[in-house]
């Protein structure tokens, strides 16, 4: 019975294949079929697939968009596919895919008219095959993906086309990305330099931040994120030895300034790991700041955190003195 079939629901997902140049398998599977492994098709449907697919993007697989392997039994009675972007695909089967003839994107018996009807007319808000999703950046070299920024560019169909209300949750875009590239820092493709635009140019995380972020569970996001909502960025908390996953851990000053001895203490990340230097600045009005280049700093290291005792050369004027510690 149809009610007994598995019914996965996929929505606002972005699927990028291995590219048109991907080498298709020439080895038959258990049923004798060749060139049908998942890397060659966006979808391989069989055994009464009864899932639902909404508001997603499929792009750059080497063969066709979907392989319906079991003929009329490939899908169940109530599968659904609404408001998806079907991108550019290769022709690994030897048959040329024609954007104006969507039937070439489907291999097999499409008895439920998923995505396209028998005449190749898009159904339920799905796009024609061969629709460029217009990622902000998408580059291949010799067939290999070298960089991608999956955020929709201006005019992208991921932004301009309607989304389906059938999804469990709705967004104002198709695919997995709106205005934020949430793959920054924690994903393999980001750490290996393939993801572009994950953080603003010039603010890419350095190697120490990546190692630091990976030490948390869950792993930290981008340097500029505020993981615990305490008003301090992840990178600030790295550099000043506070906990980016605890809102109560916000102040690196461990001992307040003693006006009698001109001393105070603060925490920072082990400079051997961060590669940073730290300078002391003072002010009497919090407007004009002067570096206290002669201030002494004595660190004590414990578990990647240094607690630094500082002695100023300047003394409070008129009974007040403000102090800054700057990471350089």
State the strand order across the main sheet: 12-13-17-16
Mean pLDDT over the full residue set: 83
Shape: elongated
Helix content: under 10%
Rg over C-alpha atoms, rounded to the nearest angstrom = 28 Å
Return the string of H and E elements: EEEEEEEEEEEHHHHEEHEEEEE
Biggest sheet statistics:
4 strands, antiparallel
Q: What is the number of beta strands? A: 18
pLDDT < 50 stretches? none
Strand content: 25-35%
Distance between the terminal alpha carbons, to the nearest Å? 66 Å
Helical segment tally?
Answer: 5
Note down, in words, how this protein is organized.
This protein has 328 residues and is mainly beta. Helices cover 8% and strands 25% of the residues. The protein has 5 helices and 18 strands. The protein has a 4-stranded antiparallel sheet. A hairpin with a 2-residue loop joins strand 16 and strand 17. The longest helix is centred in the middle third of the chain and has 8 residues. The radius of gyration is 28 Å and the shape is elongated. It starts with 8 loop residues before the first strand and ends with a strand.
């Amino acid at each position: 019975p149809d009610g007994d079939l598995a019914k996965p629901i996929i929505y606002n997902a972005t699927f990028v294949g291995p590219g048109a140049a991907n080498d298709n398998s020439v080895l038959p599977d258990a049923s004798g079929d060749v060139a049908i492994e998942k890397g060659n098709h966006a979808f391989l449907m069989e055994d009464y697939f009864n899932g639902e697919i909404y508001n997603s993007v499929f792009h750059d697989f080497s063969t066709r968009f979907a392989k319906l392997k079991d003929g009329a039994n490939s899908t169940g009675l109530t599968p659904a596919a609404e408001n998806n972007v079907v991108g550019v695909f290769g022709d690994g089967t030897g048959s040329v895919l024609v954007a104006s003839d969507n039937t070439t994107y489907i291999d097999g018996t499409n008895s439920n008219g998923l995505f396209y009807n028998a005449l190749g007319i898009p159904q339920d808000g799905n796009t024609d095959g061969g629709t460029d999703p217009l990622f902000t950046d998408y580059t291949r070299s010799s067939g290999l993906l070298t960089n991608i920024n999956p955020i929709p560019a201006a005019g992208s169909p991921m932004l301009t086309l309607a989304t389906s209300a059938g999804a469990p949750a709705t967004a104002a875009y198709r695919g997995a990305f709106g205005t934020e590239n949430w793959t920054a820092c924690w994903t393999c493709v980001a750490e290996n330099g393939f993801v572009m635009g994950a953080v603003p140019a010039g603010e890419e995380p350095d190697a120490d931040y990546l190692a630091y972020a990976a030490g948390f569970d869950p792993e930290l996001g981008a340097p500029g994120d505020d993981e615990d909502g305490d008003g301090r960025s992840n990178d600030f908390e790295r550099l000043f030895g506070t906990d980016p996953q605890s809102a109560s851990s916000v102040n690196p000053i461990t001992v307040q300034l003693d006006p009698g001895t001109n001393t105070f203490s603060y925490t920072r990340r082990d400079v051997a790991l961060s590669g940073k230097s730290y300078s002391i600045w003072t002010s009497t009005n919090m407007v004009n700041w002067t570096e206290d280049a002669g201030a002494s700093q004595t660190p004590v290291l414990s578990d990647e955190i240094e607690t630094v005792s500082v002695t100023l050369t300047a003394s409070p004027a008129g009974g007040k003195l403000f102090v800054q510690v700057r990471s350089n």
